[in-house]
Design a protein that fits this description.
Number of helices: 3
Distance between the termini: 49 Å
Number of domains: 2
Shape: elongated
Strand order of the largest sheet: 5-4-3-24-9
CATH class of the largest domain: Mainly Beta
Structural class: mainly beta
Order of helices and strands: EEHEEEEEEEEEHEEEEEEEEEEEEHE
Number of strands: 24
CATH topology of the largest domain: L,D-transpeptidase catalytic domain-like
Low-confidence stretches: 1-52
CATH architecture of the largest domain: Beta Barrel
Helix content: 10-25%
Strand content: 35-45%
């Protein structure tokens, strides 16, 4: 019998592991602590450590702190119109020359790893320099493979795939297939489309619909706008307002509606994005 789970992703609002101005996490003996001079790109929203002139950050390792310092220096040397994202501060700045023209809190990657079967995904926002490759209003999300692996793992399901032209025979004799960009089942020669807003679960298996099908498209998940930075990394809006300021994404940088709208309207394609 057909069972389904909701396709809509629920944000996991984990506690922040390192917040500017906070002491190192208790028990995290491997974390390195760095102190940095306050600049327009390093000071966290609401930070009150300006009198001392330093902000305390914690890192996973020495190599992690070196990577942060190198990419922070790269951002500090940049000129012109650019975006700067601090993963430690969970903050984004739009800067022209020496002037900050926009400042906004963001959500960044949670830094966890998901292992499922023979595959593994680490959810991180990589440091370095990127460019805005394109902009889009009312974006439609096509969930990556990890979304289905994550859901299958949560519900103790196996993972299967539906390939166009290759129907899957189910245990009850029906065929799971694709017609007119919609996944459905064939029973007694009749095709019945499945709901496009639910996961596809049969025989204790969650089936991944093909890219391009209506079952693989989710509206509203990326908010009103997105800016593409390549390799699947985006600046985008979110319906999960409470996630802003946390480390909770799978790699993208989330912003509030008004902030992503400002970027969409004012940031040209080709602009550099410095992430540290």
């Amino acid at each position: 019998m057909h069972r389904s789970t909701q396709l809509r992703v629920i944000a996991i609002l984990g506690a922040a592991s390192a917040i500017a101005g906070s002491p190192p996490v208790a028990g995290a003996a491997q974390r390195q602590v760095a102190q940095a001079d306050i600049t327009p790109h390093s000071r966290a929203p609401g930070d009150t450590s300006g009198d001392e002139g330093t902000v305390v950050y914690s890192f996973k390792s020495h190599a992690d702190s070196i990577s942060w310092a190198r990419n922070r220096a790269l951002a500090a040397r940049a000129g012109g119109f650019r975006l700067v994202v601090s993963l430690q501060d969970r903050h984004l700045w739009a800067i022209i020359g020496n002037d900050t023209v926009m400042s906004a809190p963001v959500a960044v990657a949670k830094g966890t790893t998901l292992a499922f079967g023979k595959s593994a995904w680490t959810f991180s926002t990589p440091r370095g320099m990127r460019s805005v490759l394109g902009k889009e209003a009312d974006p439609v999300w096509q969930p990556p493979e990890w979304l289905y692996a994550e859901t299958a793992n949560e519900h103790d399901l196996k993972l299967g795939h539906i390939n166009p032209g290759h129907p899957v025979k189910l245990s009850d004799g029906r065929l799971l297939t694709v017609r007119d960009a919609v996944v459905g089942v064939i029973e007694d020669g009749q095709f019945a489309a499945l709901p496009t807003d639910e996961h596809i679960v049969f025989d204790n298996t969650l089936f991944v619909p093909p890219l391009g099908t209506k079952n693989r498209k989710v509206e509203g998940e990326l908010g009103k706008y997105r800016l593409n930075m390549g390799d699947g990394f985006l600046l985008h809006g979110t319906p999960y307002k409470e996630s802003i300021g946390l480390a909770t994404t799978h790699g993208c940088v989330r912003l509030r509606d008004e902030d992503i709208e400002w970027l969409y309207e004012n940031v040209p394609v080709g602009i550099k994005v410095y992430i540290y």
